[in-house]
Each structure stands twice: as structure tokens, then as C-alpha cells.
Design goal:
The complex is a heterodimer of chains A (62) and B (355). Chain A is an alpha+beta fold. Chain A contains one helix and three strands, in the order βαββ. A three-stranded antiparallel β-sheet of chain A has the order 1-3-2, covered by helices on one side. In chain A, a hairpin with a 3-residue loop joins strand 2 and strand 3. With 355 residues, chain B is an alpha/beta fold. Chain B is built from eleven helices and 14 strands. Classes of the chains: A alpha+beta (62), B alpha/beta (355).
Chain lengths: 62, 355
């Protein structure tokens, strides 16, 4: 089991925000082989890149 | 017409480790929480708001809910069942030196003897937890553990020994001369410990599904005549543990909303559907609890409370999504808005010109 930092951008798109955030976090966790995001928040906004999400990913590998 | 209105369960969120002017220090969000509890009759908030090291305030209208479970509650995955008391297991990091460990054991003894709290058993981890403090690109404090497995094993042992809540104390790195610590003590910085504390408690609650909260173990700091009053609560004693034990002593049960738990039928159960308002700093609205409330149509009271972040309702497009965002200049104004909602008064009717 280990913890790693998370830092990603969610580009602007139509639709409700929370489902898009959760989907982006789940996708990032899957790509990195993590179990789940343990803690996250939107910490910044950039007109070009969208929303910045910082957090911690949990890995429950052996 | 007269008589008290029914409580309006209100979620108060002051995110950890982002330097909020109110609530970003040593339990200095507590006066706001007390006021919101009085205005709403039921305020659900997280340890960062209520923990003031050796200082605490116990009020049955204040519900002490750790951040991971608060997010799950706001998302509708957990309900909260009030309890009269609970047995608090004390989880101590093996990295804490023996004299400092003794101080923490004595806090547990004092809370048993002087407050009548059921504290114990005590479990020391089988390896030092290895807390590491980190800072994110935004400047927010985060953190990691070298041995999360040791934390969870100790938690499991406490549950097996009868604990229904866990107060965890991890040894945090001392750096008494760090610029960040000096800024924090002087009221202009970020709580560098807060992010790692949240990671520890999130891990435990996620794994054990019982209330947990964290206190850092640190060597005492040299006295500082310029200490900001908001940071002063952390310099009154040898540990930060008393507030955690008091907070956990009546922390509500965490009841999964799926699965038919018999507690779901209790009339005093708090569910996400009952949340009547969410209160948060206007520039820090990008956390899961706030966004989950907004998604279910709960009015959001956005309080002016400067911090590192600029993640406000406009930046997140919340009003385009149909959110009700009610601005408040102070927590006192937020309490007034909560009281208006509780009494069925449209907050807009209290402003001029009328919209």
C-alpha cells in the first residue's frame, strides 16, 4: 500500500461538474494503477486549461 | 405565529491546509461553528474546524465528522446516527519518542478521570508511520505516509479490542525554524501539517468505517511573543489530543445508506436529503462535500474568508448549473442566512433593492 500525489487538469466542457470531476479522477486512478483517489479538491482555475485538481492517490498493491 | 422552527441541518466546510483567514489555524473556526449550530439547530462539520488542541467546545448541535466521511455523507452514501458516547481507541505511532508517548497516554487518562470519557484500548503501531509533509502546486498542504499498512493494522487491532472510534497520533517532523512555521505562528501562513493529518484520518475511516481523527505529536516550540491568537491554542500544552478525544466521544455512527442497515430507520438519522444549507469559504468551493450538496440543490452560502485558492462559484460555473449561491461577508452574516432559511424567510427579501 502506498500514496502518491495527484495533479491534473480538467478541461472546460458542458455538463454537470461533479460527475465530470469524478470521472476524470477515476480515469486518472485507472491509468496509474491506483485503487482510488483518497483526497482531492479543485485548487485552481485557468482560462485555457480548465480546472486544476490536486490530491492523493491510494495504491493498494502488494 | 411563534415557536421554534425545526433544525435545519447545515454543513460547514472550511478546507484544511489552504490558509483560510478564519478556520485555517488552531480551531479558530470554532466560534463560527458554534454560531451556525445555534442558528441551524444542527451543524455538521469536520475536525479541522473544531479541533483547538487543548481547547474544545462540546455542543450536541455540533456533529464531529471526519472529512472523508463528510464527503460520503454529502454524496448520500453515508448517513449519520447520533450516539450518546463511544469507546475511543488510542492509536500511537511507534515513531513517537517514549516521553512524548507518555504525555499522550496521560491525556487519555485525564480525559477518563476528569471528563468521564471512555478512552482505551491503546495500540502502538508495529512500525513508525513515516509522515512526510508536502505542498501542492497551489501552495495547499498535502502529505504522505511511508507505512500506511502499519496504520491500518493498528486500527484493526483497536476495533478488535472494542474501540468504536479511533484517535490517532502520528509523529510529525519538527522544524521549529522553518519559514512556513514562523508564518503560521504569526498568522499569515498555511498549516503545513493539515494536509498529512487529513490523509491519515481519511485512510483510517475509509478502511474501518468508524469515526477517526488525528492529532500530531510534536516537540514543544520555544515561546514566541508574537504568536497570533489563532495559533495560540496549539501552544498551551504538551499535546493536541484533548480536542480529538472530546470530539470523537459523541461523533455520530457512519451508516451506509445502501444495504438495509437497521439504523436507517431511526428518526434522528441525519441524511444528505435533510441537509438544508452548506457553508464554505467563497474561494474554496471545489471540494467534494460542497459540490455534492450543490448537485442536489442545497443552497450554498459562500462566505468571504480569504485563503490561498480562488476557486469561487463563478470560476466553477455553479450558477450556470442552477446552484443557489448566497454570498455572506462574514460567518455572522452566514448564520443570519441560515436562520432565515430555517424560518422560511427568503434571504433575498432581506436585501435591497429587491430583485
Amino acid at each position: 500500500m502506498r500514496l502518491e500525489p495527484l495533479d491534473l487538469w480538467l478541461p472546460a466542457a458542458p455538463g454537470p461538474l461533479l460527475p465530470r470531476l469524478r470521472a476524470a479522477l477515476a480515469d486518472q486512478a485507472r491509468r496509474r494503477g491506483a485503487t482510488a483517489p483518497l483526497r482531492w479538491a479543485v485548487t485552481g482555475v485557468d482560462p485555457g486549461r480548465g480546472l486544476r485538481i490536486e490530491g492523493v492517490l491510494l495504491f493498494e498493491d502488494a | 405565529m411563534s415557536g421554534a422552527a425545526s433544525p435545519l441541518p447545515t454543513l460547514l466546510v472550511i478546507p484544511t491546509g489552504i490558509g483560510c483567514v478564519v478556520g485555517g489555524y488552531a480551531g479558530d473556526g470554532l466560534p463560527a461553528a458554534r454560531l451556525l449550530a445555534a442558528a441551524s439547530g444542527c451543524c455538521i462539520t469536520h475536525p479541522n474546524v473544531l479541533n483547538a488542541a487543548a481547547l474544545y467546545w462540546s455542543d450536541r448541535r455540533l456533529h464531529y465528522v471526519e472529512g472523508w466521511s463528510l464527503d460520503r455523507f454529502a454524496s448520500g452514501e453515508l448517513a449519520l446516527a447520533p450516539v450518546p458516547s463511544r469507546r475511543i481507541g488510542l492509536l500511537l505511532d511507534a515513531g513517537i519518542e517514549e516521553p512524548l508517548r507518555l504525555r499522550h497516554r496521560q491525556v487519555a487518562d485525564a480525559c477518563r478521570a476528569s471528563l468521564g470519557l471512555p478512552v482505551g484500548p491503546v495500540q502502538v503501531t508495529d512500525a513508525p508511520l513515516g509522515v512526510r509533509l508536502t505542498t501542492g502546486p497551489s501552495g495547499a498542504s498535502w502529505g504522505r505516509l511511508e507505512r500506511p499498512d502499519a496504520l491500518l493494522r493498528a486500527g484493526e487491532a483497536l476495533v478488535a479490542a472494542g474501540a468504536t472510534a479511533i484517535a490517532v497520533v502520528a509523529r510529525f517532523p519538527d522544524d521549529p525554524h522553518a519559514a512556513a512555521l514562523a508564518a503560521y505562528r504569526h498568522g499569515s501562513g498555511v498549516d503545513a501539517l493539515a494536509g498529512a493529518e487529513a490523509v491519515i484520518s481519511h485512510l483510517l475511516v475509509r478502511h474501518l468505517s468508524i469515526p477517526c481523527a488525528h492529532a500530531p505529536a510534536l516537540a514543544p516550540l520555544p515561546p514566541d511573543a508574537g504568536l497570533d491568537p489563532r495559533a495560540a491554542a496549539e501552544e498551551l500544552g504538551h499535546t493536541f489530543l484533548p480536542c480529538v478525544l472530546v470530539g470523537l466521544s459523541r461523533a455520530p455512527d457512519l451508516v451506509p445508506t445502501a444495504g438495509g442497515d437497521p439504523r436507517l430507520g431511526r428518526p434522528d438519522l441525519l441524511t444528505a436529503e435533510r441537509i438544508g444549507a452548506v457553508v464554505a469559504p467563497a474561494g474554496a468551493l471545489g471540494g467534494e462535500a460542497v459540490l455534492a450538496c450543490v448537485a442536489r440543490g442545497v443552497p450554498l452560502i459562500a462566505v468571504e474568508n480569504p485563503c490561498l485558492l480562488r476557486v469561487d462559484a463563478e470560476a466553477l460555473g455553479l450558477e450556470r448549473e442552477g446552484a443557489t449561491v448566497l454570498p455572506a461577508a462574514t460567518s455572522a452574516e452566514a448564520a443570519g442566512v441560515v436562520l432565515a432559511l430555517r424560518e422560511g424567510i427568503d434571504p433575498a427579501s432581506l436585501r435591497r433593492p429587491l430583485g
